[in-house]
């Protein structure tokens, strides 16, 4: 799916506010309650909080990208218009497909078990 983006990014800082707040909380913890933590405890804390900060930054980036996205005409390889297809449609299609595969696998497993005679 292609899209076009606005030249300017309005209010980008507000999208990253949660990540900045998280970084400030980590800084407060490192200079306060974790001041005398062991090296292993600090490493574990830094790893957990670092992953969370990265997740928040990525989410903020995706939210900002979505806010600036402009609709674009999308045509599939089969030359059909896909402009009106939403993310929910894709998720629903995937759930149906995944559910069908799961049901098929369960059916095959239980069918084989039913054929096993004592």
Description:
With 118 residues, the chain is mainly alpha-helical. It has two domains: 73 residues; 33 residues. It is 66% helix and 3% strand. The chain has four helices and two strands; from the N terminus they run βαααβα. Strands 1-2 form a two-stranded antiparallel sheet. α2 runs antiparallel to α3. The longest helix is centred in the middle third of the chain and has 30 residues.
Q: How many E strands?
A: 2
Task: Tell me the strand percentage band.
Answer: under 5%
Global outline = elongated
Number of helices: 4
Structural class: mainly alpha
End-to-end span in angstroms? 55 Å
* Average pLDDT: 75
- Widest sheet, order of strands: 1-2
Please indicate the count of domains. Answer: 2
Computed over alpha carbons, the radius of gyration is: 24 Å
Helix content range: 55-70%
Q: What ranges have pLDDT less than 50 throughout 5 or more consecutive residues?
A: none
Order of helices and strands: EHHHEH
